[in-house]
């Protein structure tokens, strides 16, 4: 009984839960939007559940990766080429200088970029440890995603996580609008604290854009980084590092910050979709082909996170 009470106490005192309990209208709106996006699928109005979905707008792909992603990454690359229904220019893999990843890039005809050549800083220049866990690599990977515009030719590029496999046909531009995937989980409020620090504006935590993939537009990403530099009076990557909460293991988000910025400033150019992502264990990779077939009618992507083990 005491264990149950302790878990309940932890739940009720969690900052995210406390926020929504004190802002019931925001919670109601959040759930209403999620239900509406589910309803779109139920009535066949979600374009990415149409097997014939296609966009003629060319895009490039940017995937930051490390060695532990190598067992999943080949499937990620194959799923992008098979399932993403855009003309695909180049797939850019940004990683540490690793023979395994370099050879994988050669085999899969991807472009390799050494992560230590991307920014004036490297992972070693970031000090971000929470409760004994080193989070510097996690944060550095976000900075690499935001640097993708330096390595692609097309104005649009899809940033994808190296452990997320696309399991059905989908496009990220439809009816002249860019699709923003919405996570059904409640918003992680520290991300919105970071947004206020970076851009000097408060955003109500109504939508969660942390979705393991997102289509970035170079011109808008550059505007976002310049806006951060104007607000912070320093380089955008330094501002992001300075925005972290050293007591919070996940205090700033690449997908969230970009999504909130573009949806706040250019909402008419975007449309919302439920992300329909399923989280799996890394060990499920042995059955990945059958899992893709089994889940393709319900989910858009499968994430095989190493931490699920």
How would you explain this protein's 3D organization?
With 309 residues, this protein is α/β, with parallel strands linked by helices. It has a single domain, classed as Spore Coat Polysaccharide Biosynthesis Protein SpsA, Chain A (Alpha-Beta Complex). Helices cover 40% and strands 19% of the residues. The protein is built from 11 helices and 13 strands. A hairpin with a 2-residue loop joins strand 8 and strand 9. The longest helix is centred in the first third of the chain and has 19 residues. The model has no long low-confidence stretch (mean pLDDT 94).
In short:
This protein has helices at residues 2-13, 15-22, 24-42, 73-83, 99-108, 136-146, 189-199, 218-232, 236-243, 254-265, 288-295, and strands at residues 59-64, 88-95, 111-114, 129-130, 133-134, 156-160, 164-166, 173-174, 177-182, 213-217, 270-274, 277-281, 301-305.
Count of alpha/pi helices: 11
CATH topology: Spore Coat Polysaccharide Biosynthesis Protein SpsA, Chain A
Morphology: globular
- Overall tally of structural domains: 1
Question: For the CA atoms, what is the radius of gyration?
Answer: 19 Å
CATH architecture: Alpha-Beta Complex
Helix content: 40-55%
Strand order of the largest sheet: 3-2-1-6-10
Helix and strand sequence: HHHEHEHEEEHEEEEHEHHHEEHE
Q: Please identify the top-level CATH class.
A: Alpha Beta
pLDDT average, as an integer? 94
| pLDDT < 50 stretches | none
Strand content: 15-25%
How many strands appear in the DSSP assignment? 13
Task: Tell me about the largest β-sheet.
Answer: 5 strands, mixed
Task: Determine the structural class based on helices, strands and strand pairing.
Answer: alpha/beta
CA-CA gap between termini:
28 Å
